[in-house]
Amino acid sequence: MNQKIIALVDCNSFYCSCERLFRPDLINRPVGVLSNNDGCFVSRTNELKKLGVAMGAPYFQVKDICDKNKVAVFSANFSLYTNLSDRVMNTLFEFTPSLEVYSVDEAFLDLTGFDELMVEDYCRHIKETVERNTGIPVGIGIARTKVLAKLANRIAKKDERTKGVFSVLKKANLEAALEKSDIGDVWGIGRQNNIKFKMLGIQSAKHLRDFQNTNLIQKQFTKVGRMIQDELREVSCFPITEIAPRKKEIMSSRSFGNPVFEINLMRESLACYASLACEKLRKQHSVCQEVSIYICTNPFKNIPQYSKSISASFESATCDTRKIIKEAFKLLDQIFINGFEYKKAAIRLSKIQDQDEHQISLFGPRDTKEDLILMQIMDKINARDGDEALKIAACGTNKNAWFMKQTLKSPRYLTGWSELLKI
DNA sequence: TCTGGGGTCCTAGGACCC
DNA sequence: TCTGGGGTCCTAGGACCC
Q1: Which sign, positive or negative, has the C-alpha torsion A6, A239, A237, A286?
Q2: What residue numbers bound the domain in which A72 lies?
Q3: Which nucleotide is nearest, taking the CA of residue A197 and each C1'?
Q4: Torsion of CA A253, A255, A256, A261, to 10 degrees
């Protein structure tokens, strides 16, 4: 039988690598990228990891370390990262049409059918090409299944002797890799299940693979646990899905730059998040039948706490930003309580259906042709002239009161004419 | 002073139907 | 005294991922 060969290509410290691309002076310096509002570290180079700055560490807690060690710290610049991600993926497409873009910085490649002896060299060639074309360094893991490719990828990144590419197709490599991989490092096993596995005496990936009582695994760790075990046994359970399925939910939420006390500001923020979410909804050619909102105070602060979510349904599913904002405002009136110091608001669109195939209500209001055309025009203008070109009035004109803080943001080298790199 | 955002899948249990 | 059984659908909550 022709056994599967799967390669996982993963960009190294992706956001940091993107920032370094335009700042060659940072090549050997520690670099970190922060989450929105300059809150926590979401990407770190090896130099920064070595300084003991953990993933998710709040910036203000480690600022001293950063200052002392001249760490280059950036606010997240997502338009830049998305753009570079596209370039990486386009390069990968040149090597195989059978590719799953798994996240902004990762892709699974189906290399089934390649000569097993050659596939490692081929992946080295892929790695060099991506780095030459885009400037983004990557690591590659090669295996029979996704879970094992993930495992191999970890080793490719950690063990310098691999020079960034590691294959566990050969039995000896596979055994060694399984043996030295902690059970908690296996893809799909998080904090809770890590503890549960250890209590069962399963410490390593190898232990899980060789654990005979599969019924117990199924019972304790559900179907997913069983599938992970099978994947460790080189039985593929998670296929490569080339076409991304439609999103079943679309969320948009942000923490505020400054605490919000007034319902008016809350409304403006919700209107902006709703606009973002609806744009995504229309982009995947969908409509939604349910909208929910969520508001909360800052749980880290020692102040009176409040959080609440609420949802409403439409008679006919819609993708009209105006209707969704209107509904969101009605919901907000029901849960907003004066006197709290709000930190965050969110909107979620759910019960998502295809725009062309959804049921419409016989009598209730529905999206008319004119509504849809208006939304299309808005999307087109914003795509051409920038997201802020045309917006619903309810979004307000002064975001400063609540918009997130980004004091360390790099220029939009690739997406803003005024911010192109100057040489 | 300062702690992210956006998703998916699975299961148990209740509602409901015949 | 004694009160069926099987199926489907939906939801909330938990766990995981990047």
Answers
A1: positive
A2: 1-180
A3: C15
A4: 90
Q: Please, are residues A134 and A84 in contact by the beta-carbon 8 Å criterion?
A: yes
Within a domain: A72? yes
- The reported pTM is 0.94
Give the separation between CA A8 and CA A165, rounded to whole angstroms: 10
Q: Could you tell me the distance in Å between the CA of residue A125 and the C1' of nucleotide C10?
A: 50
Which nucleotide does the CA of A255 lie closest to, via C1'?
A: B4
What pLDDT, in 10s, does the model give residues A242-280? 999 999 999 999 999 999 999 999 999 999 999 999 999
Does the residue A235 lie in any domain? no
Same domain, A269 and A372: yes
* Residue A334 confidence (pLDDT) above 60: yes
Residues A161, A82 share a domain = yes
Residue A381's CATH number: 3.30.1490.100
Q: How far is the CA of A223 from the C1' of B13 (A)?
A: 19
In a domain? residue A231: no
d(CA A155, CA A33): 24
- Whose C1' is closest to the CA of A189: which nucleotide? C16
- Closest CA to B10 C1' — which residue? A222
pLDDT tens per residue, range A56-66: 999 999 999 99
Nearest-nucleotide field for A348 (CA, C1') = B6
Of A180, A203, A233, which closes a domain? A180
Distance, CA of A219 to C1' of C1, in Å: 39
Tokens 């893809």 map to which residue?
A187
Asked whether residue A19 falls in the same domain as residue A159, the answer is yes
Nearest to A89 by CA among A200, A244, A267, A202: A244
* Nucleic strand C interface residues, CB < 7 Å: A 102-106, 150, 187-194
Query: Residue A2 CA to nucleotide C1 C1', Å?
Result: 67
Whether residue A71 is contained in a domain is answered as: yes
How many C-beta neighbours within 10 Å does residue A102 have? 17
Question: In angstroms, how far is C11 C1' from A114 CA?
Answer: 46
Contact A306, A337 (CB under 8 A): yes
Of the three residues A155, A180, A205, the one that is the final residue of a domain is A180
Half-sphere exposure of A169 (CA within 13 A, CB side): 19
